[in-house]
Design a protein that fits this description.
This protein has about 675 residues and is of the alpha+beta class. About 45% of the residues lie in helices and about 20% in strands.
């Protein structure tokens, strides 16, 4: 099947699969949008009607109870006084304050005033009361009394106790509470505290006034008949207010024929049977209404219903008209698209045939050949100014760029292999300068365990251990500023000069001073290092040392660890000329292990960016030297056990985080050290 035939079939199928579904979904969406808009308008109209009814109802109630204004004013004063008094009591603690609150609530109960203390809520739709205190209610218990309270619009006390509903000076309202099988009316005053966090509710019974006298049907019906026709009822829609017997009290909107359909037994039965605050659904009514959107809101206090109705045909008429126009326009556009598509397909297929031939030939080209670019010189299509020309030029550029990239990649691969080989050689040289770990003394009087793991191929950390001319064991550890090859080269110079200075018979502090002078003479890049240099006598446990800005060593035994020379490090080596270093001393107890380390241990980071730190290192060393620690961790004892334990804890702490700095440690121990003359205790 040719490309042109496929394009034709696809265009026809596209028209059929696009136009009609589009028209259908456009009609459906428009109809649903119209219905949703009508629902929203119904909600607004119902809310306005409900609020008008509630306002008129509550206004008339207030007018009817005007005769008890003295009782109301008395309740307000009592409420404010009790609010202040209770607020004062709730600001105190202790048994006396609790007794005072209970006595006050009992006093108010005896006077016939019920008191409740509740927390105010920001959410007016909260479903439950959050009380601090309350007086008794009815025979059903105080919970059923307070939880069953609502105003004559059906709003619960929990909803009335909203911070946005209560002014700072308090408010009056008339509430109803369940009392056995009936209901009892109360005049209520709600006062907030100064911080608007707590509300004090005082209720006084209106038993002497019959509940039936609290409203007047004629007054409310007159208000409804005056107000309802002024609301913006849409064309074809109508609104009604029905009493509990199904009698129309007020109506507005559509004419008598629609009213006759709206008063069908089906709708009346649905309206009178609903006990929900709001009911909204599509129902089938007799002609002329037919399928109709109906919203019913129940005004529980009077058992009245607000009914709003609009025929579905009225709502969907604009959608049907819009769908017909969309189909007509879409079919015309589709016909033009088919003609233009066939013409464009003919032009494109002819050019694509040439491009296909060039692409097939390009597969045989050796792109590493310097003459490969000749194939991608202009062959006619690149001279076009349309998209085919753009495609041809892009194809030519792709071929040239591919040849260049292959050449560059080959050169980069060779260069990378060269660099990796040089770094591998540099690492072997660096490791050859340091004493091998397998040559560390592990038996007899003196044991040493070294460890070094660079962050890159080569690093700037080093360690050293050897026997000085005086017979003592020299231990050294250092950390050159920086990483990689420059730090590794500087490290080689520092390690070589350090060993030479000790072999020349210099003490640790003099060796550091000499090293500092030597580095300043041959240090064009101003590099520097931290360095700990010590001489240890395994016979006596005596350690003399000098510290050039390096972390202080740790000494540990039997689950105890301490720092040696903490807070007394001298300046960095190589940073400034003419520096002086102090000779310090310490004594290791028999079996005590000394651990030298670089800051790559304490500054190791986990995925959260936290550091391993000095305290974790001390805890790791203590745990490693506890009795039986080697067996529990399945690691070696002595210096090797310290190194293994710290490495294991570092691995757990760091997790999947990559190593960011060189990690170097050197641990040593006098296994049978004895205190000689002049040793410190």
């Amino acid at each position: 099947m040719s490309f042109r035939l496929r394009v034709s079939l696809l265009l026809v199928a596209g028209v059929l699969l696009t136009v009609f579904p589009y028209a259908y979904f456009a009609w459906k969406d428009f109809a649903e949008s119209s219905i949703a808009s009508e629902r929203l308008r119904f909600q607004t109209l119902a809310a306005v009607t409900r609020e008008d009814l509630r306002s008129s109802y509550e206004s008339y109630i207030i007018g009817q109870v005007f005769e008890i204004v003295r009782q109301k004013e008395s309740l307000r004063k009592i409420s404010l006084l009790s609010a202040r008094y209770l607020q004062h009591l709730y600001g105190q603690e202790g048994s006396e304050a609790e007794a005072g609150r209970a006595a006050f609530l009992g006093f108010m109960e005896e006077r016939g005033v019920k008191v409740g203390v509740f927390r105010l809520r920001d959410d007016p739709l909260s479903g439950s009361l959050d009380d601090l205190a309350r007086t008794g209610g009815s025979s059903e218990g105080e919970d059923s009394f307070w939880e069953g309270i609502s105003d004559f619009s059906g709003r619960s006390l929990a909803r009335l106790l909203s911070a946005s509903e209560i002014p700072q000076g308090g408010r009056f309202t008339v509430l109803r509470a369940r009392d056995g099988d009936g209901a009892k009316a109360y005049l209520a005053f709600i006062a907030p505290d100064a911080n608007r966090r707590v509300a004090f509710v005082n209720l006084e019974s209106l038993a002497e006034i019959k509940e039936s006298s609290l409203f007047d049907d004629a007054f409310l019906v007159g208000e409804l008949q005056r107000r309802l026709p002024t609301l913006p009822i849409g064309a074809g829609s109508h609104a009604m207010v029905l009493d509990g017997e199904g009698t129309v009290l007020a109506r507005a909107g559509a004419g008598p024929r629609e009213l006759e359909g709206a008063l069908s037994p089906e709708l009346l039965s649905l309206a009178l049977s609903t006990k929900d605050a709001v009911t909204e659904e599509m129902v089938d009514l007799p002609p002329p209404l037919g399928r109709t959107l109906v919203r019913i809101e129940w005004f529980k206090a009077l058992d009245w219903r607000v009914v709003l109705a609009t025929p579905a045909s009225t709502l969907t008429a604009p959608a049907r008209q819009m769908a017909r126009r969309v189909v007509a326009v879409a079919l015309g556009v589709a016909a033009m698209s088919v003609l233009l598509g066939l013409s464009a397909a003919h032009i494109v297929t002819r050019a694509l045939s040439r491009m296909t031939a060039r692409a097939a030939a390009a597969g045989d080209i050796d792109f590493t050949d310097p003459q490969a670019h000749l194939f991608f010189e202009d062959q006619g299509l690149s001279a076009r100014s349309d998209e085919i020309g753009d495609l041809s030029r892009a194809f030519d550029k792709m071929g040239l760029d591919l040849a260049k990239n292959i050449q560059k990649r080959m050169e980069a691969t060779l260069a990378r292999e060269r660099v990796l080989g040089e770094l591998a050689a540099a690492r072997e040289i660096q490791e050859g300068i340091l004493p091998p770990q397998e040559e560390a003394p592990r038996e007899g009087l003196y044991r040493v365990a070294p460890f070094l793991r660079p962050a890159k191929e080569v690093g700037g950390d080093f360690y050293d251990f050897f026997t000085a001319p005086c017979g003592r064991r020299c231990v050294a550890i250092g950390d050159v500023a920086g990483k990689g090859a420059p730090a590794a080269l500087f490290m080689v110079m520092v390690a070589t000069l350090t060993r030479r200075n000790i072999h020349s018979g210099l003490s640790p502090e003099k060796a550091l001073e000499q090293l500092n002078r030597q580095l300043n003479e041959r240090n064009p890049n101003s590099m520097f290092a931290t360095l700990f240099l010590g001489l240890f006598d395994p016979e006596t446990g005596a350690l003399i040392f000098a510290n050039g800005g390096h972390p202080p060593p740790l000494a540990a035994r039997g689950g105890e660890a301490r720092e040696i020379g903490a807070g007394r490090a001298d300046p960095l080596v190589g940073a400034w000329p003419d520096l002086r270093y102090r000779l310090q001393s310490a004594t290791l107890a028999p079996g005590e292990i000394c651990l030298l380390y670089t800051d790559g241990v304490t500054e190791a980071q986990n995925a959260d960016g936290a550091f391993f730190g000095r305290e974790r290192l001390l805890e790791s060393v203590r745990a490693a030297t506890l009795a039986g620690a080697a067996e529990a961790r399945e690691t070696a004892e002595g210096p090797e056990g310290i190194i293994d334990a710290v490495n294991a804890d570092l691995a757990v702490f760091r997790g999947e985080e990559l190593q960011s700095d060189d990690i170097t440690m050197l641990a040593f121990q006098a296994t049978r050290a004895r205190f000689g003359k002049g040793s410190q205790k």
